[in-house]
Amino acid sequence: MESKILEEVAFFMEVLESKKGRPVNIEINIREAVSNVICSIVFGKRFNYDDKVFQKLIKDLEEFLSNPFLPMVNWIPYLHYVSYIYDVFGTQKCINIVKDLKVQMANIIEEHKRTFDEDDLRDFIDAYLLEWQNHTRENKIQFSEDNLEGVVLDLFAAGTDTTSSGILWAIIFLVNNPDVQQEMRNELTENVGSNRQPLLTDRTNLPYCESVITETLRLGNIIPFSLPHTATEDYVINNYRIPKGSIVVPNMNATFHDENMFLDSNNFDPSRYLDENGKFNERRENVMPFSLGMFLCDI
Prior knowledge:
It contains eleven helices and four strands. By secondary structure, the chain is mainly α. The protein has two domains: 1-176, CATH 1.10.630.10; 178-299, no CATH class.
């Protein structure tokens, strides 16, 4: 993945340099760059930023994720049936967008099937097709094209939206905190230099940069509410009884603004994650920006 990211960063920088100081809506270019990293991993190719297929993918994804219907259905599942019948919240449009996205995914998957070579796996889709082929031979787990389309769509949507939103928040915080921006620059200059891109192996030498990223994900609050979970047994917490089968929606926003965990929680303060020696302290473990539970997405 690192090589894909570094490659896309180079393309992204070329786009910015081509603007020659003119105003630019950087949100669009950031979403294109992040989407391309996901596309490289999942589809095995990156797109030019002006590619019509690529532009349609991003446009459809943005329309789908911006629909207020989605989080409400997560919290109150039966709304799905109500909204489907009465077409409230633009439900039908949302459904049509998903159908369109799945058609685009199906076309990409079909192309992979035609060119599949189990001795030369190019990306996630090829890896899935190989597993599908092996399990079919062994008569074990049932794989399907519908499942593959769904997984590919999930990877594309979740990977694009959360990462690009996090980067945009980082830009906002750095613009409003030039002292933090300068401190990051100093640390990068000292530990990486100006002749190469930062690598994952540099991470342990960049505690301040990582603390800025961590604080961005906390205060930016990329996902205010995590995915719904179900209580597998009766449970009592702080004298409240949670019956087995209850839907539980983790409130990330409340956690990230809990003054017992983050003093002056509305203030952007990367130093809160550093100890007296400039290393990470245990507070970073309290930042879970993408999800909670056994299968959380780490940072």
